[in-house]
Amino acid sequence: MEQNRPAPRRALSPKERRRRHRIRLVRNWTVFLLSCGAVMAVMTGGILWLLPRAYALIAPPTAFEAREYEGGAETDLSDKRLVLVNANLPLTEEPTPELAVADDATGVSLEAEAAAAYREMAEAARQDEIELVLTAGYQDAAARQSAYEAAVQSGRESGCSEEEAAARAATVQPAPEASEYATGYGADILAADSMEKDTGFADTRAYEWLEAYAAEHGFILRWPQERQAATGMVFEPWHWRYVGRDNALAIRASGLSLEEYLALEQTK
Ligand SMILES: [Zn+2]
User: Fold this and answer.
1) I want to staple 102 with a disulfide (CB 3.0 to 4.6 A). Which of 22, 118, 204, 217 is the partner?
2) Using one digit for the tens of pLDDT, what is the confidence trace for 181-220?
3) What is the C-alpha R_g of the chain?
4) How far is the CA of 162 from the centre of ligand 1 (A)?
5) How much distance in Å is there from the Cα of 187 to the middle of ligand 1?
6) How far is the CA of 240 from the centre of ligand 1 (A)?
7) Which PROSITE patterns does the record match to this protein (predicted)?
8) Cα(222)–Cα(230) distance, rounded to whole angstroms?
9) Do 121 and 222 lie in a common domain?
10) How far apart, in whole angstroms, are the C-alpha atoms of residue 55 and residue 61?
């Protein structure tokens, strides 16, 4: 039987062995260095790609922070922008403010100065990628009546008695004669990505922005969460009120509702 025997190796000369050894050495080093280079390239490239993405994930978005308020100016209680309209101080006559459209998209109007201030504010918000939407502003007597009736009706529908429905509605939507929407200074402000009138609006970036900067444009949160006992109104994070810049900054700094702030100023 024929056997497969390995062919006898030809003995290499010592010179030839050294030559082959050198070739192997050079080849191995080349492969090694090229591999190192490739790994480094992938890693640095990968890290450069990954870092900003990882950062975006862990870094909070830019915080909107109110600028320091210097304060100072005395409050002029005859300033018509401070007019107080509520259940205790209902309108004695129908106001006739000069109006201007404040939001072209919704067509909602405010008192002319408030409208100009709102436009400026919306533009400033847009610079910070916040899209404010003015959903309610000036309302005439008929509009206020139907808004109030809609609120009473929703109370009836959730099973309240007539009396309860009216009482509850008045804490959400002022009765027509107690509604500052008549002045053109009341403004319901929401955001394009958050159009529900519920307290969830208080958790949005738009609300964070308004809390920080609305006062600089003359708007105050009209019925704050902590001041419900003083205003008699539930917290409505979307309901803002134009009072002018200096007044707004002073009122916000006081931490009071408009009712309390004006009462305090009257004692000075
Ligand atoms: Zn409102």
Assistant:
1) 118
2) 999 999 999 999 999 999 999 999 999 999 999 999 999 9
3) 35
4) 23
5) 6
6) 7
7) IPNS_2
8) 11
9) yes
10) 11
